[in-house]
Amino acid sequence: MALDVVIKSEGADPIIELSGKIVDVDVKKIQYQLDLLHKDKKCKRVILDVTHADFIDSHGLGVVVYFHTLMQKEKREFVIVNGNPDKSAYLNRLFELTNLDKVLKIVKKLGD
């Protein structure tokens, strides 16, 4: 399934919803949106919703970590929403195996 990127907002906070597979060819779509939001210094919190994403390759994971680091350096918040309750789901395992679940702010739903 190709990557689908939808931009929404939760109050003043922009939400980038991703569904499908996040692979090298499509990562530029995400990176472009994150760049725009990062340049907008009014955005104190950016939310990336991967609840409906099936797969993320190393390039996509690198972009996520890069933007997390940029936001953190500027005392801004980068939140990942992963509402998939299945512990054996690919993204849940990926975040756990790479220990990114301890580094990134990953929540099950907004408000957590």
Give the helix proportion (percent range). Answer: 25-40%
Radius of gyration: 13 Å
SSE string, helices as H and strands as E: EEHEHEHHE
Number of helices: 4
The amount of beta strand, in percent, is 25-35%
Give the structural class.
alpha/beta
Q: Estimate the mean pLDDT confidence.
A: 92
CATH architectural designation? 2-Layer Sandwich
The counted number of beta strands is 5
- The quaternary structure here is single chain
Q: What would you give as the CATH superfamily?
A: STAS domain
Biggest pleated sheet: 5 strands, mixed
Distance between the termini: 29 Å
CATH level-3 fold name: Transcription Regulator spoIIAA
Q: Tally the structural domains.
A: 1
Concise description?
The protein has helices spanning 24-39, 58-73, 90-97, 100-103; strands at residues 4-10, 13-22, 45-56, 77-81, 105-107. It is of the alpha/beta class.
Question: What this model shows, in words?
Answer:
The protein is α/β, with parallel strands linked by helices. It has one domain (4-107): Transcription Regulator spoIIAA, CATH 3.30.750.24. It contains four helices and five strands; from the N terminus they run ββαβαβααβ. It has helices at 24-39, 58-73, 90-97, 100-103, and strands spanning 4-10, 13-22, 45-56, 77-81, 105-107. Strands 1-2-3-4-5 form a five-stranded mixed β-sheet. Helix 1 (24-39) runs parallel beside helix 2. The longest helix is centred in the first third of the chain and has 16 residues, at 24-39. The protein is globular, with a radius of gyration of 13 Å. The model has no long low-confidence stretch (mean pLDDT 92).
